[in-house]
């Protein structure tokens, strides 16, 4: 009798352990809900900020190319988040012994209240220029290129048109939120 009870307890513990591991695997170790199909965390090459600060070297920034791709778009009744990827190429002109680089990216999101324009939201992305003293540098042009990801939220059921702006370049993406 004791042997049967001991075997039953071990089997129940193994089943509980298996279910616990399956739960952790399914929820990405607690990052997602079981019923949610929220996108993965974004991959970041350049840190993101949402605060405005002292940006004294923005005038020499030139954006050559700006591309946006939808990475994950599984919008439905229980999920209103999508993952996008944006790639920015450009250059920064500089003089003297101050070499520039991209320190971080500022992201500003807002709802579009102008009904004449045919999009729901506006996202502005601004690379932030930082300069560092470099005695070997003596003016020139510094090229840069980076790709970041960002989680966006749909605003309503149905078609969501989102305008994404970077300097003088912009693109409109469409997300379909279904019930």
The number of distinct β-strands equals 8
Work out the helicity level.
Answer: 10-25%
If you compute it from the alpha carbons, what radius of gyration comes out, rounded to the nearest whole angstrom? 24 Å
The first-to-last residue Cα distance is 54 Å
Mean pLDDT across all amino acids: 87
User: What is the approximate shape?
Assistant: flat
Q: Could you give a short account of the major beta sheet?
A: 5 strands, mixed
Give the number of helices: 1
For the biggest β-sheet, the strand order reads: 1-4-5-7-8
Our estimate of the beta-strand percent is over 45%
Task: Compute the number of structural domains.
Answer: 2
Class from helix and strand fractions: mainly beta
Low-pLDDT runs: none
| H/E topology pattern | HEEEEEEEE
Helix/strand layout:
Layout lengths: L1 H25 L21 E2 L11 E12 L8 E14 L3 E14 L9 E13 L6 E14 L4 E9 L2 E9 L2
Parallel strand pairs: 1-4, 5-7
Antiparallel strand pairs: 2-3, 3-6, 4-5, 7-8
Written description of the protein model:
- With 179 residues, the chain is mostly beta strands.
- It folds into two domains: 1-34; 38-177, no CATH class.
- It contains one helix and eight strands, in the order H-E-E-E-E-E-E-E-E.
- The protein has one helix at 2-26; strands at residues 48-49, 61-72, 81-94, 98-111, 121-133, 140-153, 158-166, 169-177.
- The chain has a five-stranded mixed beta sheet with strand order 1-4-5-7-8, with no helix packed on it.
- The radius of gyration is 24 Å and the shape is flat.
């Amino acid at each position: 009798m004791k042997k049967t009870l001991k075997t039953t307890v071990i089997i129940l513990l193994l089943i509980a352990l298996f279910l616990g591991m399956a739960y952790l695997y399914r929820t990405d170790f607690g990052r997602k809900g079981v019923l949610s199909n929220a996108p993965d965390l974004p991959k970041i090459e350049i840190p993101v900020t949402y605060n405005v600060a002292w940006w004294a070297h923005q005038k020499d920034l030139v954006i050559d190319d700006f591309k946006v791709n939808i990475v994950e778009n599984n919008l439905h009744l229980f999920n209103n988040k999508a993952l996008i990827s944006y790639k920015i190429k450009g250059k920064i002109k500089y003089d003297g012994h101050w070499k520039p680089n991209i320190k971080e990216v500022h992201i500003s999101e807002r709802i579009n209240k102008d009904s004449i324009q045919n999009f729901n939201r506006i996202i502005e992305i601004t690379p932030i220029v930082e300069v560092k003293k470099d005695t070997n540098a003596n003016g020139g042009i510094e090229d840069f290129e980076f790709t970041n990801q960002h989680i966006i939220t749909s605003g309503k059921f149905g078609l969501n048109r989102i305008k994404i702006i970077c300097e003088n370049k912009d693109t409109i993406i469409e997300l379909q939120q279904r019930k």
